[in-house]
Amino acid sequence: MKRVQRFLVALGLLAIVAVAWTMVITAPDEDRHQVDLIAQARAYLDDEIYILAVPLLEEAITFDSEHTPEMEELLKYVYLHLLEQEGFRRRYINLLNRQLNREDVSDDVFIEAGTFLLKIGRRSDGLDVIRQGIERTGSAYLIDLYEEHRYRFRLHRAVYDEISTVHGNMLAIRQESLWGFVSPTGETRIDPRFQQVSTFFQGRAVVMEDSVVFAIDMNGNRVALLHDYNVTDIGNFNNDRVALYINGQWRRGTGAFNIGAATFDQLGMYSGGFAAAKQNGRWGVIGTGNDWLIPAQYDGIVMDSAGRSFGQNAVFVHQGNSVHLYIGGNRTNHEFEDAHPFGAENYAAVKHNGLWGFINTSGEVTIDFQFEEALSFGQHIAAVRVGDYWGYINLFGDIVHEPEFLQAGSFASGSAPVLTDRGWQILTLLD
Hints:
By secondary structure, the chain is of the alpha+beta class. Among the domains are: 2-153, Tetratricopeptide repeat domain (Serine Threonine Protein Phosphatase 5, Tetratricopeptide repeat); 168-262, no CATH class. The chain has 7 helices and 31 strands. The chain has helices at residues 2-46, 50-60, 68-81, 88-100, 107-119, 123-137, 140-149; strands spanning 153-155, 162-163, 171-175, 178-182, 188-194, 196-197, 205-209, 212-216, 222-225, 231-238, 241-246, 249-253, 266-267, 274-279, 282-287, 292-298, 300-301, 314-319, 322-327, 330-336, 338-339, 348-352, 355-359, 365-371, 373-374, 382-386, 389-393, 399-405, 407-408, 415-420, 423-429. A 4-stranded antiparallel β-sheet has the order 1-31-30-29, with no helix packed on it. A 4-stranded antiparallel β-sheet has the order 2-3-4-5, with no helix packed on it. It has a 4-stranded antiparallel β-sheet with strand order 6-7-8-9, with no helix packed on it. Helix 2 (50-60) runs antiparallel to helix 3, helix 5 runs antiparallel to helix 6 and helix 5 (107-119) runs parallel beside helix 7 (140-149). The longest helix is centred in the first third of the chain and has 45 residues, at 2-46. The protein is elongated and about 90 Å long. It starts with a helix and ends with a strand.
């Protein structure tokens, strides 16, 4: 047995030595063969005989040598000359994908691939490649390229009397005094039949129909009924809190209609666990319980059209003729004439010397004061008024949708409400 084992070990060592010698002997031949292929290909290219250079270069790039990256670039150059012939577009894209999948890929490859895909009409794929390049390389050029091409819009044909901002992947729409819901792409989800509606939160909204208040799911099914309370008005629903107007005062309820005892003069929409609240004639910011982030001692709290005030851990407080920025419940030194709350992004619209611009949560001006009106950013886009009409800008302050609307709302879930001369319509960002 030991003799057999020694024989097998010796045989294994011989095999290893044989493989090593083979690699030593053949490596130079492979290098020479690649160099020969390159020389033959270049001779064809000098005569602009691209089709015969293809098989030579395709074989040359199969060798793992210092010449391979150079041959890949040469082969792409050849493919581009043959691009209109069948199969060569696919070969070019496959070679780009091969380069994109390397760990040390440069931003140049992402730029080349993204630009090519955009050029041939594969816009979504091109933007995906550019986004990946931004994530992997942080290239400023790719960021500029993305901003240049990402903004394309569709204005849906349906017209409504009123549209809410997008929340919970739904928009509330009003037609002939009744409310229903549509998706951000304009698909009718629940026909208008309610006197009042809240926003959707985790697939549930609070509605009023024939003076009865109940909760519905996203298909319009009743999932909870409010008993024993005479509710005459409802607010928006978020963070499992909805404002209900009961016997002349606002109270808070959950989606299952557990009603809190605290009463308020007015109550905004919850966001990030906090809501603007007016109590005894003064405004503050309250949590989902009875603790106040900002005591009710101010003239007002800045809210958006949905009633949200708290975003990015920041709130704007009205005091006298000024608006002050509070971060984490603490007042900063930043003061403005007016403001809109921070949304899902770190840019809020603020007013200074009669014009609107944008700041971050540090109070630094990110886009200069230049607009007649503005809303805070959502999905990298902000509504601004230039002259009499509203359009949209990107994070760099560049106009990405020319001002043409009578009013405009903020983007969420890819869409925003806009007022045209026909009525309220939905504007959708295609990317």
